[in-house]
Structure formats: C-alpha cells, structure tokens
Amino acid sequence: MTDSTPLSEFRPVRSGLMTGALDDLASVGLAGSRCRACGETTLGANTLCPNCGSDDVFPIALSDEGKVWTYTVVRYRPPGDYKGAEPFQPFAIGLVELPEGLRVVAPVGGDPDAVRIGMTVRFTARARADGVVDFVYNPAA
C-alpha cells in the first residue's frame, strides 16, 4: 500500500482490467472475457467478442501464473513523463503467455538480467504513490 493515498481512493490502471478489491491487493487478479459463440478469450471485461462480434460473452478470472514468451530490458530512461524509479534503474518488460492462450505485456519484476524466455512468473498487483493500482509479473518461487 502507499502512505500518501487513502485505500478508498485507489483506482485501477484501466477500468475493467482487474478483479478483486483494490484495497486488498492480494485479492486482485486480471479480468478476462470468453465468447460462448467462438471460444475466444480476451483481456478485460468486454461486452462484444473482438473475434466474431458476438455479444454472448461472459467474465472469467485469468490465471495468476504464466510464462515469459519474450522480453526486453529497458536500460535507458524513457523520455517524457517517466513515472518509474528515480534515479532510473533498468527494468524488464515481458510478453507473458497465460494458460488461457492470451499474451499480456507487463513489467517483469526482480533482476532484469535474470529474466529468461519460458520462465514462470506470477501476477502481483501493486499500488503506486498516485493511487493507481497496476501490476507486475514476478518470478515464481
């Protein structure tokens, strides 16, 4: 949690992306949707299937664990309104493949030089100082 933001003021990084109570980060997970017509699984709460256009979709909770499909290490401070650690520290961004077949772009925590393709990672919700709840995938124990 953060010292500067009351729990009641937390908000998700994107509406419809997460399940659970934002004031209980251990309960937060990624939201998904599945289409009854074609079986497509998508990230976030959706009302229409982007694959077939059907409105016969239902919410699902996505898996907490996935595997790094590919990744890159950002070694230079991004330009503009960078909201990361100061002073800048290199970090990994991964494309994490979930068992449901989705691939999610997200930061990969821990030592960026230890990230490997095929590595098992676990979803972790985190609250930023500005009250936004986002997420990172950390190496699984």
Defining key terms:
single chain; 141 residues; mainly beta; six-stranded mixed β-sheet; four-stranded antiparallel β-sheet; 10 strands
Helix content: under 10%
Mean pLDDT: 92
Rg over alpha carbons? 16 Å
Distance between the termini: 22 Å
Number of discrete helical segments: 0
Could you name the ranges where pLDDT drops below 50 across 5 or more consecutive residues? none
Order of helices and strands: EEEEEEEEEE
User: Strands of the largest sheet, in order across it?
Assistant: 1-10-9-6-7-8
Beta-strand segment tally: 10
- β-strand percent reads 35-45%
Domain ChsH2 rubredoxin-like zinc ribbon: 30-57
InterPro entries: ChsH2_C, ChsH2_Znr, NA-bd_OB-fold, Thioester_dehydratase-like
Pfam families: OB_ChsH2_C, zf-ChsH2
Domain ChsH2 C-terminal OB-fold: 61-124
Outline of this structure?
It contains no helices and ten strands. The protein has strands at 11-12, 18-19, 29-35, 41-43, 57-61, 65-74, 91-97, 103-108, 120-127, 132-139. Residues 30-57 form the ChsH2 rubredoxin-like zinc ribbon domain.
Would you write up a description of this structure?
The chain has a 6-stranded mixed sheet, with no helix packed on it. Strands 2, 3, 4 and 5 form a 4-stranded antiparallel sheet that branches. Helices cover 0% and strands 41% of the residues. The model has no long low-confidence stretch (mean pLDDT 92). With 141 residues, it is mostly beta strands. It has one domain (7-139). Strand 7 and strand 8 (103-108) form a beta hairpin. It is built from no helices and 10 strands. The chain is globular and about 50 Å long.
